[in-house]
Amino acid sequence: MTDRIILLQAPGGVAQFRIEDQRSDPPGNGEIKIRHEAIGTNFLDIYHRQGIYPLPSYPAVIGVEAAGIVEAVGSDVTDFKPGDRVAYAGPPVGAYCSTRNIASEKVIRLPDAVSFKTAASSLLKGMTAYMLLEKIYDVREGSTVLIHAAAGGLGSILVRWAKSLNASVIGTVSTSEKASRAASYGADHLIVGREADIVAEVKRLTGGIGVDVAYDGIGGDMLLKTIRSVRPFGTAVTIGQAAGPVPPVAVEELRPGKSLCHPSIMAWCSDIGRYCDAAQAAIRALETGIVAEIAAEYALADVARAHEEMETGRAAGSILLMP
Question: If you ran DSSP here, which 8-state letter would residue 235 be given?
């Protein structure tokens, strides 16, 4: 039996993707074979494709989350059986394929209330939200947070999760249409437009103080604005560079007493205990409706088009690949 796989031949543009059929091998000891029903995409995939975060070798299979049905288990696997509904997220990369053998300790059982599409679009983002809102900074009732790209895949989950903690949320979005979406997720205030004076607006909305914590996945020159939007002794968190690499930041920008954090969900998940805690927290959140909207679905073979759409920044939500 053969299965479809997307190989990245070398770092670069979408032309580096190659679609191939490969032999379907049985799972080894401690492994589970999953037949994917839906595969999630993330900006992390773009960073891997472009070589911003280099992979150990090429050709390689990228992708860090998917959901599906257990097709077979290794001889020593007792926690799962064929037919179980499951998902996974985080390292190691390798989700852009129709079936995958993966270590059973990385596999999370899906409750019936969570669909394959929801899990594939939201699990890693939910784990990231858990890390950011409950571990990197302890967001709680009375906290004021700034979330960039509040209508995007991760942004929508951050908004919903922060509101579930009774925080006040200021979101930034590029268009009025995205503002409407972010408002529906619960954002209390929205700053609209790429040319908006974000620092001035945040100060106005917070009585001149600034936010307790700000999450910036945009990168480029946005990080400096993000730091300046944070109150004294607050925290700015840089989590991506959708608009380009972050330029050097002078340490003086952190006066008085601000913190700058650069966490990685992939590094967080390298510890299996942290991984399981984050995954279970994310699944509980998905069951309550803290999910990303699905902006588009593409056949696995149309991976290049999916990446091109992600890079435009137009999608309000997550993009799925369907095997």
Answer: E
> Counting Cβ atoms within 10 Å, is residue 21 exposed (0-12), middle (13-18) or buried (19+)?
exposed
Among 89, 71, 94, 68, CA closest to 81:
71
| Percentage above 90 pLDDT, the chain | 89
Q: How far is CA 129 from CA 56, 74, 168, 259, in A?
A: 27, 32, 16, 19
Q: Locate 255 and state its tokens.
A: 């006066």
In this predicted structure, the answer to whether residue 314 has a pLDDT above a threshold of 80 is: no
**Measuring CA to CA, how many Å separate 214 from each of 104, 156, 217?**
35, 15, 10
Would you say residue 36 has pLDDT above 70?
Answer: yes
SS3 82: coil
Q: Is 264 exposed, middle or buried (0-12, 13-18, 19+ CB in 10 A)?
A: middle
- Which pLDDT tens digit goes with each residue over 76-103? 999 999 999 999 999 999 999 999 999 9
- Structure confidence at residue 316 (pLDDT): 74
β strands within the chain, DSSP E: 2-8, 17-23, 31-40, 65-73, 85-89, 99-103, 108-109, 144-147, 168-173, 189-192, 211-216, 230-238, 259-261, 294-299, 318-322
